[in-house]
Amino acid sequence: MRPVPIVIALVIVAAVALLLYYQVQPVKVETGEGPEEGHGLPAGEHGPPEGRHGHMERMMNMCGENPPGHLINELFENHDKFEASYQVFPEERKLVWRIKVNQNPELLKLLKDHIEQMKCILESGGNPRAHDPAFQAEAKLSKYIHTKVYFQGDVLVVEKWADNDCAFDVIKGHAQIVKGFFEKGREEAMKTHEFGSPNCAEYGFP
């Protein structure tokens, strides 16, 4: 046999061998690590490896049929309609919001729905703003933070309390962000909010 046909035959054999090799290899799925994967649902314990759209679908399945944050634009547009204030109870590691709307009370229902959806996402291991340090801290401490939302007449009451001092500092820090939202709307919400506390050093937020 002449040299050229031998070379061609060897190339064909090598190509077939490679094809058979990749057909029998298992598919390897990259899951990633950390709370900033996709929309904030970490891979592994809480987050499946579906990527961005899979995380979105998972949060929708767990936390209502609407996409996370679907009400936020309407809340942005009406931020100045809310009358909101809060009290801090250090001995109980507790903070209580009382929120009213003089016109269009339906806005309070929208706000309640938004708060409850965000609560569900955090409690399910997600993070609605994974790039923001303050929200990273809230997601990491979420198992130590508790939220109760209810109406008291025409007032929306939001109670938040903590199991430890770091979680309480997270609650107070988040209250400042929400206060800024009621005052400035989208301008405040689009900021990146730093967070740190001596009580939170062991959680990576000194």
Q: What can you tell me about this protein's structure?
A:
The protein has 206 residues and is α+β, with helices and mostly antiparallel strands. It has one domain. Helix content is 43%, strand content 16%. The protein contains seven helices and four strands; from the N terminus they run αααββααββαα. Strands 1-2-4-3 form a four-stranded antiparallel beta sheet, with helices on one face. Helix 5 packs across helix 6. The radius of gyration is 25 Å and the shape is globular. About 19% of the residues have low confidence.
Topology summary:
Elements: H1 3-24, H2 52-62, H3 72-77, E1 82-89, E2 94-101, H4 106-123, H5 133-140, E3 145-152, E4 155-162, H6 165-184, H7 186-189
Antiparallel strand pairs: 1-2, 2-4, 3-4
Helix pairs in contact: 5-6
Helix tally equals 7
| Biggest beta-sheet profile | 4 strands, antiparallel
**Biggest β-sheet: strands ordered side by side in the sheet:** 1-2-4-3
Query: What low-confidence regions span 5 or more consecutive residues with pLDDT below 50?
Result: 16-54
The percent of residues in helical segments reads: 40-55%
Strand tally is: 4
In short:
The chain is α+β, with helices and mostly antiparallel strands and 206 residues long.
